Amino acid sequence: MDKDLVYKIALTQVPGIGSVLAKSLIGYCGGVEQVFQKSKSYLKKSPGVGEVLAGNIRSFTDFSVAEREVEFIRKNKVKPVFFLDKEYPFRLKNIPDCPILLYTKGNENLSPDKAIAIVGTRKMTEYGKQFVTKLVEDLEPHNVTVVSGLAYGVDIWAHKQCVKHGVDTYGVVAHGLDKIYPSIHTQVAKDMVNSNGAILTEYTSGTNPDREHFPMRNRIVAGMVDAVVVVESAASGGSLITAELANQYNRDVLAVPGNIGEKYSAGCNYLIKNHKAGIIESVTDLVKLLNWDVNIKKQTQGQLFIELTEDEQVLVDLIRESKELGVDQLMANSGFTSSKLAMNLLELEMKNCITSLPGKRYQTTY
Question: pTM for the complete prediction?
Fold first, then answer.
C-alpha cells in the first residue's frame, strides 16, 4: 500500500479542509503525513486553522476510504497526480484554488502546448452545433487539446467532434472515476481515452455528481486552458461561471455572438456587451489571439514543398538534426563544394524550407 498516497487522499477527506487550506497546511507542517502527526496546538498556529479545523485533523483516524481508493486506482489504471508533481498541469497549478490531487485516466500529458475549453448550454441549438463542428474541424492542424465537461449539449458535441477529427480532448467530471455522468456518455468517454484523450476529476471513486460539484469542476476546466470559448448560453448557467472564473484566472474568453432575443445567445451577448469576452466567429480569431499563426505557417510551408532533390534533402536532414547549422558545418558534414552548397541553400530558401539566421546559420521552417 502506498502510504504517502493514502495520506494525500485522506487530507482531501478531512471536513473543512479545502484545497487552499490543504496546501497551506502541507507547507506549514513540512509534508502531507506530517499534517496528521502534528499536535493540535501546532496545527492551530497554521494560517486559517482554528480550534475546530485543528480538531478535525487530529480526530481523523479513518483512513479506510483512502486505502480503498488506492486499491481502486491500482485496479483501474488511474493515475493520481499531486499538485507538487511535475506531471501536474502547469496552467492549473497557477490558480490559487487548484485541487491538491487529480485522478486521471488516459493521456497523462496534462500540460499540452495548446489548450482551449469549449463550453456552452446543455440545450444546444443547430446554430451552436454547426459552429462547434466547424471550429473543431478547423482546429485539427493546430495540434490543440480541447477541454470540456462531458455534459449534455455543447460539451459532449465538442468531445464527439474532437474524436471524429483526431483532436485530443479531455473531459473534466464532477464525480469519481467509477462512473460517467450522464451514463449515456460512457461510450464517448471511452472513445476519448482510446483517442489520446483523458478523463479527470478531483473526486474519489464513489463520489456522486452532486449539484455543488459542478461549479468546482468548472474551475478546473477554466484553469487548464489558455482560452475559454463559450458557444451558447442562457442568461445564467455553468458556462457563465466558467467564463467568470477564466477571467479571474487571466485566461482569454471568447463568446459566439447570437441573435438578440434568442434565449441561448443571451449569455454570450452579455459577456461580449460587458467586455467579459471577445467575439469569436471562426478559428481565425483564436489563431490571432493566441499567436498560433506563426507555428502553423511553418508547418504549412514544410508541407507545400515536399519535392526536394537528393542534395537538398541531405541539407534539410542535417539542419533539422542539429536544429540549426552554420555554412562551415554544412560544408564539412555534407561534403559539398562551396558553390554547390550555396546553390542548394538558395534553392531551399526559395522553397521556404529553410530560413537564414545571423552569422550565416540556417534552420528549417518546419
Answer: 0.78
DSSP 259: -
Measuring CA to CA, which residue among 151, 212, 181 is closest to residue 18?
Answer: 212
CA distance 170 to 253: 19
Angle between helices 310-322 and 338-350 (to 10 degrees): 80
Confidence band of 1 (pLDDT split at 50, 70, 90): low
Instruction: Output 329 or 197, whichever has higher pLDDT.
Output: 197
Give the span between the Cα atoms of 42 and 60, in whole angstroms: 16
Contact between 227 and 279 under an 8 Å Cβ cutoff? The reply is: no
Say if CB 283 and CB 142 are below 8 A apart.
Answer: yes
- How far is 68 from 197, CA to CA, in rounded Å? 26
Measured between alpha carbons, how far is 131 from 135 in angstroms, rounded to an integer? 6
Q: CA dihedral defined by 175, 181, 183, 187, rounded to 10 degrees?
A: -90
CB 47 within 8 A of CB 24: yes
Q: What angle do CA 303, 307, 312 make, to 5 degrees?
A: 105
Q: Is residue 104 within 8 Å of residue 77, measured between CB atoms?
A: no
Residues 6+ apart with CB under 8 A from 312: 344, 347, 348, 351, 353
The answer to whether residue 161 scores a pLDDT higher than 90 is yes
- Residue 340 identity: K
**Chain length of the chain:** 366
Domains along the sequence of the chain with CATH? 3-67 (1.10.150.20), 105-291 (3.40.50.450), 294-364 (1.10.10.10)
CB 257 within 8 A of CB 282: no
Give start and end residues of each alpha helix (H) in the chain.
Answer: 3-11, 19-29, 32-37, 40-44, 51-58, 64-75, 90-93, 126-139, 154-165, 186-194, 213-223, 238-248, 266-273, 283-289, 293-304, 310-322, 327-334, 338-350
Q: CB under 8 Å to 258, separation ≥6 — which residues?
A: 127, 232, 264, 265, 266, 268, 269
Lowest mean pLDDT among 33-42, 274-283, 348-357: 348-357
Collapsing DSSP to helix, strand or coil, 56 comes out as: helix
